[in-house]
Amino acid sequence: MRCLSLKTELSWLIGFLMLLVLIINLSILIAHAGPRIRAEDDTSIHLTRELVVTAIGSLQETEDPLPALNRFYESLGKLRHVDVKVFSGAEAPALAPAQLDPNVRSGVPGWFVDLIHTPPKRVIVPVSIRGVSYGNIAIISNPVDELEEIWSDVSWLAFVSLLVTSAMLAVVLLLVRLSLQPFEGLKRGLADLEAGRSNVSVEPRGATEFRDISAALNSLAATLDRVKTENRSLVERLIRVQDDERKEIARDLHDEAGPCLFSIRAGVVALSELTIDAMPDAQRIRQTCDNVDRACEVLQNLFRALLGRLAPRGLAEFGLGEVLRGLINSWHISRSDVRLALACPHDLTILDEPTALTAFRVVQESLTNVFRHAKATSAEVRVAFGSAPVPSVGEHDADCAPAVLIEIEDDGVGISDHPSPGLGLLGMRERVAALGGALSITKRPTGGTRVSASLPLPKDEEDEE
Predict the structure, then answer these.
(1) For residue 343, what pLDDT is reported?
(2) Which of 84, 186, 208, 437 is the most exposed place for a label (fewest CB within 10 A)?
(3) Burial zone of 432 (CB within 10 Å; 0-12 exposed, 13-18 middle, 19+ buried)
(4) Does 316-464 carry CATH code 3.10.20.30?
């Protein structure tokens, strides 16, 4: 089922309301027409009766009242709103309910008369002068004039109201059309965003609501452009780092593994030559074996170092806590001038590999920055289970969920007010965001830098807790 547009719905609603107002006005006018006609009938019959009674009273002293009565009867035919009929003395007029003569309905629709008219009223006045009866006078209400006036008022009101309603409807529809024009710009802007276009901008115009939506859409477009630019830059840096890492690994293999392999091969050849003699030189055999053993040890250390750079050793076997202690010990050996402390009050072996690896990389990168840039004399690392806010449906609402809380503090120079994030910080943010966590880097009140990260725990680990 196809839905109507907002413009069409508003047009129908406004037109319906205006038509309803017109019908209500006409209904009120018609509802008041009946009482108006009845009041006019009562007044006309009362005044006519008083006139007849007064005229008959004035003829009581007349010797021959017939000429005066005839003149009076003729004058009664010119009265409005009533019909007067004269009956001779022998006639006895019936007092049945009077009906409006159909001939008087000319110009007024019959349905309108039937809708608002009540049966005409009648009054019989006997004509008696000095004890002599001269018949009866029947006064019957005739609301034709009043009906015509009311019908004229209703017709003109309906006609004028229809014209005014049509004009107002046309003006309102034009205003609605002009007011909803900004929707087209918003629609095009959203279509451009959906198509992935850059530099999308919607001109703010129209009502305040449309201007606010346009500003929000422009802000969203600018944010998307900035994110795309950052992602493109990050991808370029990652590719460059990968290339540099491959070159460094290739150089290490060439410079260190190559000579070791050559030494091992030379030792094997020497041992092969020694086995030709019937009485081989034991001293040379032991020396050659020692050379091969040293070369194998160098290769083993080289491969261990390479594997450590690619992935932390022992993370799956011993857990995050032991790997972090190994990292702290290695920094102790190479940089004894900086005091390092590690606090892991909980058992971190239950962490899944992605969470543990991300936590390790955050600590590793943070300590690297401490030794490279912070000029610190001490640093502390804390990793523990806790709870962290997780965004919910509302923009400002948040629920707390179990998480791994990571905090690295140092007493160095602190982070600058307008830092330019390097690849290490961007990598940390991307890793934490990929797991649905949060990362913040702030200055400590007492000096130095604080790196805080929270990584939500998967459901199975929450149940295990």
Answers:
(1) 92
(2) 208
(3) buried
(4) no
